[in-house]
Amino acid sequence: MTSHFFYLALFALGVSTVFGVLLRDAPREQVRTAGLVFGGFVAAAIVLGWLMYPFPL
Asked: Do the domain assignments include residue 13?
């Protein structure tokens, strides 16, 4: 349960919650914005990790 993906999702959840609360006024819009930001964070991390996979250290 202490994988990199778990920590990524935990961080994305915290940041997206703060962004949703700060950027929107209505609770429904806050939840929608937080969900979009969360999905964007996770999707971007997966895509960037996939793109960097072929390059060795």
From this structure: yes
In the chain, the number of structural domains is: 1
Domain that holds residue 29: 4-52
In a domain, 20, yes or no: yes
Phi and psi (nearest 5°) for 21? -70, -40
Long-range Cβ contacts of 15-19 (<8 Å, 24+ apart): 15/41, 16/41
Q: pTM for this one?
A: 0.87
What single-letter DSSP state applies at residue 54?
T
Backbone φ, ψ for residue 2 (5° rounding): -105, 45
Q: What pLDDT, in 10s, does the model give residues 6-20? A: 999 999 999 999 999
